[in-house]
Amino acid sequence: MLLIDGIKYHLFVPENETDLEQYVEKNYKHIFGQDSIYLPKKKIKSKAGIGVIPDAFVIYFNPKPSWCVLEVELSSHPLYEHIFPQVTKFKRAVEDNTCKKNLTRFFYESITEDPMLEAGFKHKIGSGEIYKSISDMVEEKKPLFVVVIDKNTDELEEVILDFNDKVRIIEFKTYQREEAEGVVAFSFQSLVTSSSEKNILRSTQPLDKGEYKRGQLGKAIYNLFENKGIENVSYEECEKLALSIKPDSQFNANHFSWYKNHYLKAGDNRNSKSFEYTIFGKIFIVHNARQVLTGILEALSEHDGSFIGLLCSPDQIHGKKRRYVALNRKDLYPDRPDLCESCAYQLKNGYWVGTNYSTSSIKQMIRLITEAAGLKYGKDVIDSL
């Protein structure tokens, strides 16, 4: 509820996307800046002829002309099935040279047919070369994709993972005045500062090769894939994990498939760096620090399984609250049940080891484990961490 000068406004969700689109259109200057230009829907096609119709285009100034493709959604709709393919089609379409020329012409005609828009545009670019300015913008600058939605959700955050910094989400809430249905108020995050109108639509720092942004659920699922091996993780396990993190989660088979595909797609970059460890002169090569830890534990357990019991004894102090190795997985992360599900690896002997640690922490764990096994770190057990 909003309380404005003692008057109550109650949150309500527009009945359909058309209503939400109209609210956004009426308020777009508050979102993109007073000099921004809102352009209507137009079908665009990729090189392969696949068509897509964005809800609108917006030209804003940053300070030179930049542009975005606008998609308006209701959170009640199936976001995975709609937004992901929509944004993918947008990206493919705007990469096509023919599409770029068509959009340039469309933008130019839309601006020049309105004397006020034309005058304002000329003033912002400091010349009368409108067509060249628009052409340069479309040719040289990739568009930002903006998703306006009535409620941001974990699902939407996960949907846009593949698009890195080229997608922005704007949560646009609508409120209705109590006992006055025709009076509405809106709550949203403007993409420009109110004081100087300086545009903050600039891209964030791009992700390094091999990295990918993760939400809480995504991170937990990727941890599960890394710990067990993606081929050994079932849909039921991921569903259980999703519910442990968010009890009202609507995780389904489509989400499971999407996570697997995204994880595998990032695999080449992730596996480009290898790790190795040596036990009693035998060298093993794996893909990440966690596999170094679990591989060493498995090998030392087979050599002499008695040391595991010593690691789990009450007088052994590992972390401030957490135990590195435990017979009960819940003892690994007593304050984080979600990590007990996603970041606990079960050894063949039945014991559990936590894997949600930095590389430097894992190196310390390996040293502790080696000494507990009565071996020399750096001689009997060597790692490349």
- Biggest sheet architecture: 5 strands, mixed
Percent of residues in β-strands: 15-25%
Taken from the alpha-carbon principal axes, the silhouette is elongated
**Overall pLDDT metric:** 79
Number of helices: 15
Helix content: 40-55%
Q: What's the count of strands? A: 17
CATH architecture classification name of the largest domain: 3-Layer(aba) Sandwich
The whole-angstrom Rg is: 27 Å
Distance between the termini: 52 Å
CATH class of the largest domain: Alpha Beta
Q: Report the oligomer.
A: single chain
The number of domains is 3
Q: Trace the largest sheet across and list its strands.
A: 3-6-7-8-9
Uncertain parts:
194-214, 268-272
CATH topology of the largest domain: Restriction Endonuclease
Relevant terms:
385 residues, 41% helix, Restriction Endonuclease, 4-stranded antiparallel sheet, elongated, 3 domains, 15 helices, Replication modulator SeqA, C-terminal DNA-binding domain, alpha+beta, 17 strands, 5-stranded mixed sheet
Characterize the structure shown:
With 385 residues, this protein is an alpha+beta fold. The protein has three domains: 2-187, 3-Layer(aba) Sandwich (Restriction Endonuclease), CATH 3.40.91; 216-270; 275-383, Replication modulator SeqA, C-terminal DNA-binding domain (Up-down Bundle). Helices cover 41% and strands 20% of the residues. The strands form five sheets. The chain has a five-stranded mixed β-sheet. The radius of gyration is 27 Å and the shape is elongated.
